[in-house]
Amino acid sequence: MQAVGISFVEHHLTIEQLKDLYPDSYIHHEFPERSDGLHSEEARPFCYFEVLKSFTKLLPSKAIVIRDCEEKEVNTEDIVVGDLVIIRSGSRIPADIRILQTNCLTIEVSEVTGKKTPVECTAEAAAPYVSVFDSRNVAFKGSYCTEGDGLGIVIRTGKFTVLGGIANLHTQIPPTKSKLQAELRTFAQFISVLAICMAVAMFLIGCIVAK
């Protein structure tokens, strides 16, 4: 799991630093809710939206973003890095998001990270020694908002999210055979060899009898 999140640095950054890192998002560092968000022509998604079927229940179909200085509902696959996403109670997180503002925002992350306790989010930067999984300022794609609301900037989408990384790891793991399958395969090989031996023996006996 740590390998999946090794590229994350945004949880260590302050909102002022995030503003510099994502200039096209026009983040208002004092009042994030007043941010302009991306311009529509700048919001061009990467062509990737393949996740294992077992993860599809974690993916929302729609999300609310701020673009062109107004709230817009967009398809999840149209979300891009730099989008400002509004998070509300009862909604799924559509991408990996660095929290910019929170109003009692609580995120259930157990289905993504395995943590059983919901995370009370903060907009404050995490200490340098804190991993992205232990930080409280990143909402992972597929997690669930159980309480409160907030605003965040998209920092990872598609296969580059933690959920996408987990899905990729699953696709790289070769399927394992059960003990029963292995025994059946061995038995089938034994029967095949036995049948060949019997056929050869019958052929030799036939030749001897013919003489």
UniProtKB/TrEMBL annotation:
Transmembrane segments: 187-210
Record has Repeat as a keyword: no
GO biological process, one term: potassium ion import across plasma membrane
Keywords: Cell membrane, Membrane, Transmembrane, Transmembrane helix
GO molecular function: P-type sodium:potassium-exchanging transporter activity
GO cellular component, one term: plasma membrane
InterPro entries attached to this UniProt entry: ATPase_P-typ_transduc_dom_A_sf, ATPase_P-type_domA, Cation_transp_ATPase_P-type
Domain P-type ATPase A residues, every copy: 58-169
Matches recorded under Pfam families: E1-E2_ATPase (PF00122)
Localization per Swiss-Prot or TrEMBL: Cell membrane
Membrane topology: Multi-pass membrane protein
Transmembrane helix in keyword set: yes
PANTHER family in UniProt: CATION TRANSPORTING ATPASE, SODIUM/POTASSIUM-TRANSPORTING ATPASE SUBUNIT ALPHA
Protein name according to UniProt: E1-E2 ATPase
Species for this entry: Teladorsagia circumcincta (Brown stomach worm)
